Amino acid sequence: MNPFLLPSPTAVVIAFIELLKSGELLLDIWESSSRVFAGFALSVLIGTPLGLVLALSPRWRWSVDPLLQFLRPIPPIAWIPLTILWFGLGNGPAYSLTMIASFFPVVLNVYFGVSRIDPQHLDVARAFGATAGQRLREVIWPAALPSILTGYRIGFGTAWMAVMAAEMVASHTGLGYLIQVSQNMLRTDRVLVGMVCIGFVGFLFDRAFLKLQEHWVRWA
User: What integer pLDDT is reported at residue 107 of this predicted model?
Assistant: First the structure.
């Protein structure tokens, strides 16, 4: 086939070695990973307590849930123009897009995990004199943890996809930027290197989350 349309595996391997030797590939992987972890951490810090509040407070659920359901269908890539206006080029749009992409899976899975707890478990805890903090720590959190960790895993995966779109448009480093520059240079072999690295690194992160799930909620 035309090597411009689909380079041979040998050409892709050669391009991979070139990028690896220059240090460019490792730097791009590091930049993309750091942006995803930063945005994901923000979504966890905000989304986890919000999901708990929505599940435990009907008043908050009545007032906040419609707004969440309105914003949730908007794809993260649609936020790129606004994030560039607000934060300029660089890490700002990447952080915000990864946070938006992972925020809703985190919130919804926390809400689902807490809301499906058997009310009798909470009644038993109250009967034994457990305080609100003890019920949260000893009953609610352990029971909802499998669903919460699933939300974290899904959220991180969506954040990993979203950061590539952000880097293609509003960044000068990262795997997404590598693909964009390689396309402009008509280096299809480097484009495929970037795609393979995105898939492989994303797979490693997913396996790591799965191992953490198996370790923390082995009983589930």
Answer: 94
